[in-house]
Write a structure and sequence with these properties.
The structure is a homodimer. In chain A, about 35% of the residues lie in helices and about 25% in strands. With about 300 residues, chain A is α+β, with helices and mostly antiparallel strands. In chain A, the strands form 2 sheets. In chain A, strands 1, 2, 3, 4, 5, 6, 7, 13 and 14 form a 9-stranded mixed β-sheet that branches. A 4-stranded antiparallel β-sheet of chain A has the order 9-10-11-12, with helices on one face. In chain A, strand 6 and strand 7 form a beta hairpin.
Chain lengths: ~300, ~300
Amino acid sequence: MGDRRFSLMVHGGAGTLDDAQQRAKGDAWRTAIGTVLAHGRRLLTDGASAVEVVESCVVLLEDDPLFNAGRGSVLNEVGAVEMDAAIMDGRNLAAGAVAGVHHLANPVVLASRLMRDDGPVMLAGEGAMRLAARCGLTQVGDDYFRLPERLAQLEQARAKQTTMLDHIAGAPAAETGKYGTVGAVARDLKGHLAAATSTGGMVNKRVGRVGDSPLIGAGVYADDETCAVSSTGHGEDFMRCVIAKTIADYVDMRGMDARQAVDAGIAYLVRRVQGLGGVIVIDRHGNCASGFTTRNMIHGWIEHGGDATVRL
Amino acid sequence: MGDRRFSLMVHGGAGTLDDAQQRAKGDAWRTAIGTVLAHGRRLLTDGASAVEVVESCVVLLEDDPLFNAGRGSVLNEVGAVEMDAAIMDGRNLAAGAVAGVHHLANPVVLASRLMRDDGPVMLAGEGAMRLAARCGLTQVGDDYFRLPERLAQLEQARAKQTTMLDHIAGAPAAETGKYGTVGAVARDLKGHLAAATSTGGMVNKRVGRVGDSPLIGAGVYADDETCAVSSTGHGEDFMRCVIAKTIADYVDMRGMDARQAVDAGIAYLVRRVQGLGGVIVIDRHGNCASGFTTRNMIHGWIEHGGDATVRL
């Protein structure tokens, strides 16, 4: 299986962070990503499986109001939270995905439950909420989510009549110019791969809008034979390119490593749909690579059990 | 662009049809598929675009109670219809998808509307129904869908406590052993490709279950640079393999034609997840190919403007 050491990557969203934003929150983001990497390192060193680790890392990111997932989820056009999440196990291509869930602290835990059951891979809306109730997942109240910053963002987006924030090429960076999503990919000591992605979607998004995050092959993919991928960005671009599977296919069909496959995938995303966002990838040998077309991507990694690196 | 003549393929689901079923309905299925092919031929000959033609062909299939989509949709665990559909335009990778819609005669029309808008690619549940209302799509009543045969199927599935019908390898073929989905792929006179897929899903399925049909890259994909694909089968298998994009990537990354890419895709589906179902594919040169792992797939094609062929 090549290198016997573990690798781990996590991200907290891509976009354009202006200088004020970096000053105000840069240290908090760096600390948060570093904390998640340290947590994942402990688990992986203790022999946890890749799929356990990506779930656990995404739970931490969902619990942190700094990130647009779980607690920090942005608000949709009616001021409500609708979250999407997915997880995939590279050992057997088992996958679970939920779309449009609400009042759950950790959508990735529900996706994981679906992955472990031998039933549907994906549940949306009230069907997903029924499963959450059957699994005994505690529901949290509106207050858990409606953070002052998120309410202010929604007001801004409504005023501009936009569903996303102005990180479009050519537009000036705004203080909220960040695509929020969180994700993790891991290779465990046995060489198995896994990936998980979770998001609150886009500020002021339409009710019922499903982005790429919960779509297997777009926002998430993991296959022991190729690589593990988690995406973040303008979901529609990633869906139309099926970017995570495309990157896995570059590894499978062209024999690329993580770095080459990320570069080829990002080039494809740009050439075909001028896509905005980024990806984190660990290949089956544990090589880590990231790529993004936005100015920034909040992410970090531990390659082959080495030092942790964090980048904004 | 190679061959200047059009090509068209349609399918009405894969599964195991026993002899009694073939005798009882074989002629009706053959006639229905032949009618749709003749309709598509007229449109394509008149210069219609591939995306117009796949939408129009899928509307006919949705209107026919013989097929599990639109009017003939099967019933879920609570006896209701929840339909999924998607459409994709190979010219620019524009795509539209709806999941969990109800009381609509033609979900593919709603997916198409989404494709033409510059907003979300995918809407689920009530969000999708809001768009339908905004678009002025007429809602039909429960009576439109609850056909006696579908009610009987649901009773059978409930009695067996199964979500699907007994077409599992080794199990005897049952009279209802068919995965229902409908789909169409086309290459128009200008060489453009498109694909559309629509379904009522699986009998007795969980509320909120989203199958592969509305997922770009799983149940549907179209790209002028590679091929157009529509899938039908056990959706979870197709989602985990992201089968439509995988087939497109065999064309893109390995230089395969439709026949080779279908064979490679079906081999991948079997090797990785023992997948049940089939695909129809037209490559950028207008070559047609189909493949399936079930005993039957109801489908037909016109290759390079030639005679129509129908197969069960």
